[in-house]
Design goal:
By secondary structure, the chain is of the alpha/beta class. The chain contains 13 helices and twelve strands. The strands form two sheets. It has a six-stranded parallel beta sheet, covered by helices on one side. Strands 7-6-8-9-10-12 form a six-stranded mixed beta sheet, sandwiched between helices. 39% of the residues are buried.
């Protein structure tokens, strides 16, 4: 008999038991004697029967499916930034190990989260959320297990994965200061108080203050954290009077776009302007010149999120609900002492 045509009724008939008994053996429910269980398992083996996952999911309303939810705050932020693909890779690798499947969902400000109920999602990993917004409140009302990542949520009861972003902004800026740069531009996304870019901006300011270098608001460029955003910023930075000698871009993709834009303007990196990125994406190692950057372990960030989500699904107690991952500077060829 073809395995695709085998049903629970066929198993019950071969084992000479009821359909309910076969269901109890498959699902580990009810009372079944060892002898009856052996007969059912033998029949399942002989018929090569595979229980219907969808049928079982409808019964217990579980899908073994989780979603990575990303607010689409900036045009091009999702599709043009490999950060999200590395992140999903880490999530998917870990999720597969605990028999969970992953989907990636981009949402707008008016999202109703109907997809959560429609697909019976078991949990969510929310990237870039802001507390006390209607978007987050709508999601919390669902009562679905959730982990917040790179998010501004101050409730200690929430499960969170964060990065030491303030330290990242500090060490990237301090590296440029140590080379002798003082007029250091910051290429960032939108600065929303408490957000990831804001925390990195605070690190930038702290490093300048410690070095006795005045903070100049006009050297902060809020552009999309994408290669196009970096490329477009090159003309503004290159034309700046007063001699910017270094730029700290808060994403590698923005830094790579910036380097290309400066090249097209005849500005050589690092001879004329040094550039530092943030993330240590694989492309940072192979662009010309290789990009000095602040490294974060994006894949580990995804794995940690799955661990926190799995703990909720399995109702396992955790000593800490907020995990903060570290950063490190990776010096390469895109930074050098100023030539003027």
């Amino acid at each position: 008999m073809s395995a695709s045509r085998v049903t629970i009724k066929d198993v019950a008939k071969l084992a000479q038991v009821s359909i309910a008994t076969v269901s109890n053996v498959i699902n580990g429910t009810g009372r079944v004697s060892p002898e009856t269980q052996r007969k059912v398992e033998q029949a399942i083996g002989e018929l090569d029967f595979a229980p219907s996952a969808s049928a079982r999911n409808l019964k217990d309303k579980k899908s073994s499916l989780i979603a990575v939810v990303v607010p689409l705050l900036e045009k091009g932020r999702l599709q043009d930034n490999p950060f999200y693909w590395h992140l999903v890779r880490g999530i998917e690798e870990s999720a597969r190990g605990v028999k969970l499947h992953v989907i990636l969902v981009g949402i707008g400000p008016d999202e109703t989260f109907s997809f959560v109920r429609e697909q019976h999602l078991d949990g969510l990993i929310f990237v870039g959320a802001f507390a006390r917004t209607e978007l987050v409140e709508s999601m919390l009302r669902l009562g679905v297990p959730c982990v917040f990542m790179d998010s501004l949520v101050d409730d200690p009861s929430f499960y969170q994965v964060a990065l030491d972003d303030e330290l990242g902004g500090y060490i990237g800026t301090k590296h440029l200061l140590s080379l002798g740069h003082e007029r250091i531009a910051l290429l960032t996304g939108v600065l929303l108080e408490g957000g990831v870019n804001y925390c990195r901006w605070q690190g930038y300011r702290r490093a300048l203050e410690e070095a006795g270098v005045p903070y100049r608001p006009e050297l902060v460029y809020e552009e999309p954290t994408s290669s196009l955003g970096g490329y477009r910023a090159a003309s503004r930075i290159g034309a700046k009077t007063g001699g910017i000698t270094a730029v700290f871009a808060l994403s590698d993709m923005a830094a790579i776009g910036l380097v290309k834009g400066l090249h097209d303007l005849g500005i050589v990196v690092p001879r004329d302007i040094s550039v530092v990125g943030f993330d240590d994406d694989e492309r940072a190692r192979y662009c010309i010149p290789a990009l000095t950057t602040v490294r974060q372990d994006i894949v580990e960030k995804g794995r940690t999120a799955v661990r926190l989500l799995t703990a909720q699904l399995e109702r396992e107690p955790l000593a800490e609900r907020r995990v903060t991952l570290g950063v490190e500077l990776v010096p390469r060829q895109s930074t050098a002492p100023p030539s003027r």
